[in-house]
Amino acid sequence: xxxxxxxxxxxxxxxxxxxxxxxxxFENLTRRFGTTKALDGFTLHIEPGEFVALLGPSGxxxxxxxxxLAGFERPDIGKVLVDxxxxxxxxxxxxxxxxxxxxxxxxxxxxxxDNVAFGLQLRHQRSTPRRARAEELLELVGLAExxxxxxxxxxxxxxxxxxxxxxxxxxxxxxxxxxxLSALDAKxxxxxxxxxxxxxxxxxxTTVFVTHDQEEAxxxxxxxCVMSRGCAEQIATPAELYSRPSSxxxxxxxxxxxxxxxxxxxxxxxxxxxxxxxxxxxxxxVESLDALLRPEDVDVVVASTxxxxxxxxxxxxxxxxxxxxxxxAAVKADVLSSTADVFELGTRVxxxxxxxxVLVTASRPAT
Length: 367
Known about the structure:
The protein has eight helices and 20 strands. By secondary structure, it is α+β, with helices and mostly antiparallel strands. The protein has a six-stranded mixed β-sheet with strand order 6-7-8-3-9-10, sandwiched between helices. A five-stranded mixed β-barrel has the order 11-12-13-20-14. The relative contact order is 0.13.
């Protein structure tokens, strides 16, 4: 796939003054498919102009929630409020929402300009303003020189920009993004990710973004809703979600966590030479506990009599990730790549906990 070399978002022309998007509320939604509950009491409040990511593994209900909001699915129970109005029984075409799909969904027999103008044509807008609007939006997404090209003449990233411009053409108050970046290569995905976020902030459109990619969710959204089994497991800002996960599921799904057996004393646990406060509530009636640690929660010190052994190392750019076997656990830790030479495979090390508190869960056998 060819790379896009378009104008960066910061230098693109504004199409219209910023607008405020609509508030959106998912209220106690339940949606069944046979015996399976795709949504099970799902509730989420989205502020006007807010960018919210629905994040979770396959089958967690995130796409079903988006389709219910778009009008492609109807819930068995619950409400969907847009601007305070329940739209559950409003047809999809009357909901004033723009949607960008994973598969672009462009008309192959139409130019980029005609694809963008299609929604305006359905609204019976006259040809001249329709054409002008489409060209303005293509300029906004950095495709001013490609207005007459057909989809097969555009790269994947360029096609997705056309799809984004088409969704924006009808001036929606809610923008829905259904894994729009997953079919793109890494470089184009990163560029388009930044561009979508810049456009959303400029136009102040309420945006709901479905993804299974934690990096996309954390880098783009104002808040992230982590979903599991049709429910919202945790709703928080990216920083809070990563640093203060509320459950074992969130800690394991968002970021990388290591499990280490710990001994509890009151509201603290002993971990690598330190007593750390337990974050939140420890499981009731459970004697054996594991602490969940991020790679940055521990420091690594070379020691000839150390209890840990380095079993793997991965260069990640500015940092290098080490895998350390210690006391029956496999712990991941990040060190600066500039100092990583001393951490060769087989080197004995000690670990020192540097977190202020720690999330604990019922222990399970090490793997």
